[in-house]
Structures
1.
Amino acid sequence: MDTLNPALDLVLRSALLWSNMVKKADQQLSVHGISFSEFGILHQLSLAPQQRLSRIELATAVGLSASGITRLLQPMEKIQLVEKEQNARDARVSLVKLTPAGQQIYLDAQQSCDFFATQFVSPLTPRQQETLADLLKRL
Amino acid sequence: MDTLNPALDLVLRSALLWSNMVKKADQQLSVHGISFSEFGILHQLSLAPQQRLSRIELATAVGLSASGITRLLQPMEKIQLVEKEQNARDARVSLVKLTPAGQQIYLDAQQSCDFFATQFVSPLTPRQQETLADLLKRL
DNA sequence: ACAATATACTTGCACACTCAAGCATTGATC
DNA sequence: GATCAATGCTTGAGTGTGCAAGTATATTGT
């Protein structure tokens, strides 16, 4: 108990840091009417070829379960940030595609998020930011 | 869109990484009948002087709201991992104290969590783990 | 061809968490 | 010393998410 395992300390600190970070990001994004999770969805879609992905792909890309994705997408479809498409080869998969409106919201939100992210890592020098990104990629 | 802001990329990657990490940690801890949040509570209490903290202190230490703490502690009090104590100087605060049973569960769970944490950071060399911990502390 | 298994979701239920409102107590100001 | 704001906490209502079970389609083995 006196000498704490550094790995455990790292894990606990990170969990706290990350939870606070997401809360702040959510706050920034609330101006655009979307949550950090929704931003993640839009982000992944905008990076995807033809800006569309299956729900399962989205789930793993943003770290949610399949059911989480289903429910998260419902309101986004309703306000037409995304739309459903069928997959010709497999009738089970229902593709999610970014609409022009969704694209626009994403670009707006991205600015806020860019700003936030830049601010968030600003205690580190550019060199350190690079190192951090590199180390995290290996986990 | 072509060249993504590295800071934004870092933030999004981290969110995914930590969310997956917490899920795995939760799985490891389920053997002991506690969640990662509950482990965090026990951990903070075991580090605290006299192993007791106010609910507000706990909240900020583990990254939850005051109401989150209230509800999280209810079952823990019921199975006597922690107990209530009054603060002599301020009747508003209700201190939370680790019981011997709670201490024992914590020590057991800590072993699992140590193991998990060590495994989690094992893709990095000890030197890199140190660097990572150091960089995260500055955020 | 047909059964058995796997995959891509969706839905019902449960749980964890937050926010806003409320209560009790304390501290500050006049 | 009375009032008014601030603090610590609890509770009611709502949101986000997961798990297990269900449905539809696909794939595999015989």
2.
Amino acid sequence: MQSDGALARELRHHYLFAALSDAQRERLLASAVGRAFAEGEQLFGHGDAAACFFLLRRGCVKLYRLSPEGDEKIMRLIRPSQTFAESVLFMEAPRYPVHGEGVEAGELIAFDRETFLGILRESFATCCAVMAQMALRIQAHWDEIETLALQNSRYRVVHYLLGLLPPGAEGRVTVTLPARKMVIAAHVAVTPETLSRTLRSLSDERLIEVAGDEVTILDVDRLRRHMH
Amino acid sequence: MQSDGALARELRHHYLFAALSDAQRERLLASAVGRAFAEGEQLFGHGDAAACFFLLRRGCVKLYRLSPEGDEKIMRLIRPSQTFAESVLFMEAPRYPVHGEGVEAGELIAFDRETFLGILRESFATCCAVMAQMALRIQAHWDEIETLALQNSRYRVVHYLLGLLPPGAEGRVTVTLPARKMVIAAHVAVTPETLSRTLRSLSDERLIEVAGDEVTILDVDRLRRHMH
DNA sequence: CGATCGCCTTGATGGTCATCAAGCTTGCCC
DNA sequence: GGGCAAGCTTGATGACCATCAAGGCGATCG
């Protein structure tokens, strides 16, 4: 990848790469590939051999799985400056465990797995960053498994809305849905119809107001309590 | 913890500790605590401050969460020689993300978090083992999330049964359920009634035979294909 | 041996949410 | 502007599974 000053600076402030020396960052960038992608463009398929992990710079990517019937469940929606597919770093036979596809055109960096593993060997601090990252991911998974197993669709939608809030938000707050409603629905594991109905019933109860992809939470605390 | 030759040998063959030097293993064991527990005994609660991670030597432990209504979802069933709660190693403010409770009386080792982190710093190979372990766990989570989101209860039960098989099993195989059926039900996120009915209907279709906690899969391939 | 207690099974009922099928709104292009 | 397509909404219906309730079965204990 061409040396790009802006990118190098970006990496220096990314928690995953912050602990690297300039030489290591150089080495990593030399083995990395930049790539633009379009909306709807497939980045990799579930089961494809994996030689890279990624950093999203612009746009939006969905990681998802398909049921045999073709139903889609979005596992993660990636936003700029997030990394994804790190776990292929540590697989014996690295294969992507999900499909990856652009939801909104953008640009990403593909880092070479082997190169990064070599760097990890030299940087315990970066090892720690990776492990901390994976630990966070595991936490998030448990939350999601709990939500899917124990809660109904209304709860999942409310939970999702609350998850969009900036930390510490209170009172009346407006959030923007990060993607089309169909995409959100596939993320919270309901049909678009059910999502629509749930938002309507929350509106009817004067808990939220919906205008396109802008959702206003009228009272954060009240919504938190209203989960059941 | 008292030096215990058998335990030291056990650790040497455990993938997570295999790469340690004798001195490191000594150090780790010196900071570890053995603990026996009874069926139904609480080991730690969701949200408790966490200073240890664990290796199960005998018995069975469930990691679970509770909904506000008291419904239980078992996230993992731990069996001897498995480690658990490793992810607390890397949290800033370490707290157990689930409840832990004995399902079958047994014995475990609690390793000191700080000591192990110190050892990780010295052993890149062990870092790799930990990261590989976490990557596997993440994989398993994806599978579970997919199953919960996209599949019905029948599929989940079949999937669970197939997961009990030794790798490469074919034709007619008998497996033993690793816990009471109520526990299995909480694991696959159905009620005991539904589990019972599902097993019955699988029996009626001559896909399996059930006798107490022994389940005979009459034809592994046929069961795989019959998921829908 | 009969009584009791858990666990599991079986049956009847209802709620939740997916599905199917129209309409509606919005943006886009000729 | 008219026409179309895509996404969203709304309504009617039904499948799936939880719930409630009762009965069976095995283990333990006096």
